[in-house]
Amino acid sequence: MFNTMQYNGTREENYKLLLQQLKGLLHGEEDVIANLSNASSLLNQFLDDVNWVGFYLMKNGELVLGPFQGLPACVRIQVGKGVCGTAVKENETQRVADVEQFPGHIACDAASKSEIVVPIHVNGEVFGVLDIDSPNLNRFDELDQQYLEEFVQVISEHL
Predict the structure, then answer these.
(1) What contacts 68, CB < 8 A, 6 or more positions away?
(2) Reported pTM
(3) Per-residue confidence of the chain (159 residues) as pLDDT tens digits?
């Protein structure tokens, strides 16, 4: 059983605890959908000031909506389009302080003001992305990026 907990340490200590929790959730489970569902739920309860946390998975050359927490979302995103598609095309994390300033931003939730998208790699190929939106401008910083990239690395080791 998983209990919601208060994260009372420094941001870095809290992220390290989050990574341990993720490893525990994924341990011994091989189902991709189950693992991504739990990962999105874990992040959603951990992160403050977010309104969407989830995954898009590569299928037939495009990103398709996967497990998530938040309002209904865009189902398909072309590679190179929006923040998610750009993360795949450039094969690197996209941290956007103000989505209104991102050329071609796809607005699935009008409340979203900032976003971070981290590519997930399996066997050297992009498997999908972790996408997190916030209703606050400039919500995500370098520390968030570092630990969300580590979070995705833990996930990729279990895919």
Answers:
(1) 40, 52, 53, 54, 55, 131
(2) 0.95
(3) 566 667 788 999 999 999 999 999 999 999 999 999 999 999 999 999 999 999 999 999 999 999 999 999 999 999 999 999 999 999 999 999 999 999 888 877 789 999 999 999 999 999 999 999 999 999 999 999 999 999 999 999 998
